[in-house]
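pasting for the record
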Amino acid sequence: MRLTGQSLKGCLMLEACRNCQGKQLVSQASAAVLQLKDATSAKVEEAVHSTWDVWMQPRLATKALSDLAAQRQGKVAVQVLSTMLRGAAETSAFHYNAAVNACATSGLWQSALDLLSSMFDQRVECTIISFSSTIAACETSSQWERAVELLDWSSQEGLRQNIIIYNSTVSACAAAGHWELALNFLKSCQHTNLSPSVVSYGSMLSACQKDGEWQLASCVFHASRGQAVYPNTISYDACISSGEKAGQWQLGIHLLHSMYLDKIERIDVSFNAAISACEKAGRWHIAVQTLSRMNSARVASDFISFDSSISACEKGEQWGTALRILARMQDMKVEKIVITFNSAISACEKGGQWFRALNVLRCSLPLVYVKPSVISFNSAISACESCGYWRAALQLINAMPSVTLTPTAVTCSSAISACDKGERWRLSELGFELSGELVE
């Protein structure tokens, strides 16, 4: 029978009404189990039976289980599926896969593995999605050995593997820091005529980052471009961070510039890793320039950006620049930690700026409610010692108990040296006796 235009319109409206009604029923079924504060098996079963009409319809039940996955309610999803099985509701691979995915989002790798095993026991057809979801659960729980075993198992079952299952396995190995294994899977992925994606390369770069394998990271990064897989922000950040610990500042600055040319979004992590690399390499001027570029790139600087820059200035004995950055940090009301102030005080110490070191300790720290540490006092006392200002050094030692800090042997040693330079021999002797008591 041929439908007229009006009849077709009516059918479409009826189908739309059914879909709308179905969504409402699914929402009610999901809400019934999600609102349970104590999701025991008995309570979940009671909630499921209260909306049994939904769970008896395979399509709606799959959607409801997917909603539980979105809410990271893996435990509840497993209990719902068990209730469906006991109630003889129609179940298929779709329901199992949705429950496994819920376990993956909840980090319940053992539950996901149990569901996969029960699919074989119940003779439910396992698909590559079943395995990839289970591997994803292992990935989020750092169960890389299980992920590798599952990949091999899926191969033995004769399932056609896809890039998603390889990505999850590479990511699981990468998260555990096994970059060699991750690299092998990346290579085997290519041997099975699968094209690695940006996620594949990103996971591999993440593994390199964890182990500081910056040379390998650089090779993988350029290999991805050679395969016409263009890196995203995550890939760039992982590559920059891989060279951070090794002080590979040229790599970081080069990649930051490449991100700009490729119009890839640069975030605070991108800049912070490059600044930190400059700091470790003693390139204070490049670190400060990179900090300034964050503003022009409209990327908000955080306390890591400022702290690394001030630390770079401290190592380069650039006390003036360190104090200017600290002042800018205060103007921008950026969160501050005591380490940031310690670096600024130490920069003043190395520059022989004892008065400015005291100013940071006595004025700046209390204003932002940051409690000084022993290192804060030691650096300030050392600054006084270098200039022979024995009186200020002793005042600082006397002030330490007021902030519940105890002078250390290093503290006393700097104070003794200050007294020596100020030719205060008696005070020096007393300081030596105090230092001996502290060491004992």
